[in-house]
Structures are given as structure tokens and as C-alpha cells.
Amino acid sequence: MKIDLTNTTSSKINAALMDARRASGSTAAGMVLTLVIVTDEGSAYDALKAANDASREHPSRTLAVIKRAGRSPRARAETRLDAEILVGSDAGSGETVILRMHGELAAHAQSVVLPLLLPDAPVVVWWPDNAPLNPAQDPLGALAQRRITDAVTAESPVGQLAQRATGYTPGDTDLAWTRITGWRSMLAAALDQRNVTITAAVVEGESYNPSVELLGLWLHNRLRVPVERVVTGGPGITSVTLSTKDGDIVLDRPDGLLGTLSMPGAPDRMVALKRRDTAELIAEELRRLDPDDIYATAVRTPVDRLRERIAGVEHAGPGGTVEQAHVAEHAVGDRETPAAAKKAAARKKSAQ
């Protein structure tokens, strides 16, 4: 069932939800939480589809907040709330309300959302992209027990991790962390089978992937060993190597589908390690509403704790010093990349 309301109010939306529930033959809500999605028109379809699929595991009221402040002065002066209500099969196992806020109302989204929250139920806010610098201080984020962001959608995904660390508040999490759950589980299970001492670790994965950095920081924190980060072509994380005196423990996944676990003195084993879609990631995050202390420890660890290797050159990670970057630049000078050549020419000109 689909109901369109133009130039409406929160009270009218609540009344329409009650009427739709009665029309479907259900008087009880039967939902466990409210999921607020803050997005735009371009990302709304994919986000709502993921929330719809996740609601089959977590029946919820989904509120999609789409802010349309307007580009012209006339459009910004028009304050209006339009709503699209989906119930039944169109909304998975819950209810979906798409809220389009026009004009000045876009700056006060919390006043519209607050009356629509399920009473006595947890609230989760998810930003599929364009997350605020400090989610807990955002007016909508302040309403929630859990706040979900996704660093991979930022212009600088690895730099976004530093911002997440600076503004971290218990209840924050990021889908870049959720994406490495399978890797963390497999590696922990492998180490449970053997009483060995890890001396070093190497994490391989594509560039600009914050999940690779988080996995390396997690290994650094839990194992207290130096971790090297190697850039590959992907997809995603491709391999993790744990060095021991008896040999290397290697978890390799070159195709993003199936992994191979190799351990000294044991035959190789194939393990399921498929890259998961957004619906699975959101469903996992909705299973727990308490603060994730392990994530907090990992994201607060400076990324420059990792050593980075690109094309055989070792240097400090993204948080390294200018001197380290300068050494790395000279080390790859033989390759004469366009960027290196341009910098060399500029130094030569200034010296003259």
C-alpha cells in the first residue's frame, strides 16, 4: 500500500500510518526500532532497498529524510513537507515513510522526525553518504542510540577515519568496520587453533579503502605487533599474512568471493568470505545497539601506525611526516611518474 501526502504535517502522517495499519488488518505495530536514513534523492533508492531487505530480520519503521532546501530564493522561501508512506509488501516487514522537506524546514528535520519515532523503541540514524563531521552532535544524531556512517563514500576515505576518531561518541560505528567482520572472525578462529606467537602482520588491499586500514589497526591493537599495509588492485581486502617462527598464517581472497586459509603443517582450506551487500551490513549493525568498544579502539589508533608499501617502497602510512614522504618520493624517482617529474622540475627551478 502506498499513500502520498502533499504539504502535510507529522500528525497527519501518524494518522495515515494508523489507518494503513488497520486497513492491513494489524492493530499492533510489531516493530523493534526506528531507522532514520538521512540521504538525498540520488542515494535514496539504494538506501531504502537495503533498509527494506534488512527489515525482514529487524522489523522497523524506516524514516527517510530527504532535504530539498531549494536552489533559488523562491524555492528556499517555500516551506513544505511532502510524505510518501509505504506499508505491507512495499515496505518489507515494517513501515516506510519518505519525508521530503522543502525550504526552511530542511534545517529543522528533527522537529518533523521526533513525533514519528516509535515510542519506547531504540532509534538508529544512518547516513549512507555525506555524514556530518560529528554524528552525535547532529540534531538527528542526537535522537539516536546508534549512529551509522560509511567512510568509503567520502572524498578521502582514509582521512575520514581520523575525523571519526576525533568526533567519536559511544554508539558511533562505520560500515567500513562492519565489512571486516568476516576477516576478523576467520583470523581469530585460526589463532584459536594454534598456540603461536605472532611477530608481524601484513594486510593487502586496494587503495583508498578504509576497511583495509581498520583491519590493520585492529591487528596492531590486538596482537601488539608491527603491521604493514600493502596496496593491491583489490577488490577490497585481498590478503592477510601473520608471521610466526613456524611459518606464515595466510588468509587470501583474490577474487572477493572465496578465501583460502593456509597454516603451517596443515592443508589449505577454502572458506566463505564473500563481499557483502549493504543490506547485510545494516542488518548486522542493527543486531547490537550497545557501544562497540573494539571499533572505538581501532578507529582511535592513528593510521600512521601502519607501514605502507607501494611498488616495493616502504614508508610511513597516510599520517606520516613530510620528511618520510620526501624519502618515498626519491625512492620511486627511477620510475619518473608525471607527478614526481613535475615536483622535481619545480625544485630545480626554485634552486636556480
Plain-language structure description:
By secondary structure, the protein is an alpha/beta fold. The chain is 33% helix and 26% strand. It is built from twelve helices and 16 strands. Strand 7, helix 5 (157-166) and strand 8 form a beta-alpha-beta unit. It starts with a strand and ends with a helix. The model is unreliable at 311-352 (pLDDT under 50).
Mean pLDDT: 84
Helix coverage percent: 25-40%
Q: What summary fits the major beta sheet? A: 8 strands, mixed
Strand line-up of the largest beta sheet: 1-4-5-3-2-6-7-8
Got a strand count? 16
The fraction of residues in strands falls at: 25-35%
How do the strands and helices of this protein lay out in sequence?
Layout (H helix, E strand, L loop, with lengths): L1 E4 L4 H14 L9 E7 L1 H14 L5 E9 L4 H5 L2 E8 L7 E8 L6 H5 L9 E4 L19 E4 L7 H10 L5 E3 H4 L2 H12 L7 E7 L3 H14 L3 E6 L4 E8 L2 E6 L5 E5 L6 E4 L5 H8 L7 H7 L7 E4 L2 E4 L5 H10 L6 H14 L1
Parallel strand pairs: 2-3, 2-6, 3-5, 6-7, 7-8, 9-10, 10-15
Antiparallel strand pairs: 1-4, 4-5, 9-11, 11-12, 12-13, 13-14, 15-16
Give a short overview.
This protein has 352 residues and is α/β, with parallel strands linked by helices.
